[in-house]
Amino acid sequence: MKTTAKLDEEAGGYILNGAKMWITNGTLTGKETGDIFLIYARTGEGRADITQFVVERGTEGFNLGQKIEDKLGMRASMTAELVFDNVLIPANNIVGEVNGATLCMMRNLEIERIALAAMALGIARRCIDDTKRYAAERTAFGKDLFSFGQMQRHIAESYSEYMAGRCYVYGFCNGVDFLTPGKG
Q1: pLDDT digits (tens, 9 = 90+) for 66-118
Q2: DSSP string, 104-157
Q3: What is the C-alpha radius of gyration for the chain, rounded to an integer number of angstroms?
Q4: Residues with Cβ < 8 Å from 174, sequence gap 6 or more?
Q5: Does some domain include residue 49?
Q6: How many domains does the chain have?
Q7: 56 carries an active-site annotation
Q8: Where does the record place the Acyl-CoA oxidase/dehydrogenase middle domain (predicted)?
Q9: Which of 95, 124, 146 is the last residue of a domain?
Q10: Which one of the listed residues 32, 56, 112, 137 is annotated catalytic?
Q11: Is 34 in the same domain as 83?
């Protein structure tokens, strides 16, 4: 993590510098940042010395960097770079403890991974449904494609892989414990 926040006791807060890339909803219009962000920044020399801050749109030195387009994944989400240039963050905008946000950050990553896995399941299911629909509508040699063994095999394999993934994701979600440290 290269984004840093240094304590400035005279100013009554932390000076935030750096950038965050690939921020979902970093911009909603393509011209300005979103309204409010939770930002992680390195606040000490230790590996786990990370603090979480609230940063609001319009804060001096907080700007929109590049808008990221032509993505392969979540194309509908507005993704951008956020840039911090000597941004003064008041001490009361700290979330949790100074140097204590590492566990929270890791938990957020775990939740995001579960959400992405669930999205992938939805996409896979839609692909299977569309394939089945198309195979029932399209004809070749006087029969619908669904009546051919090879097509049935491909759809069945896709469905069994989807169900295996679904069981894995559901099983993981049933066993995850985000409230106990080290059990995520």
Answers
A1: 888 887 767 778 889 999 999 999 999 999 999 999 888 888 888 889 999 99
A2: HHHHHHHHHHHHHHHHHHHHHHHHHHHHHHHHHH-EETTEEGGGSHHHHHHHHH
A3: 23
A4: none
A5: yes
A6: 2
A7: no
A8: 1-87
A9: 95
A10: 112
A11: yes
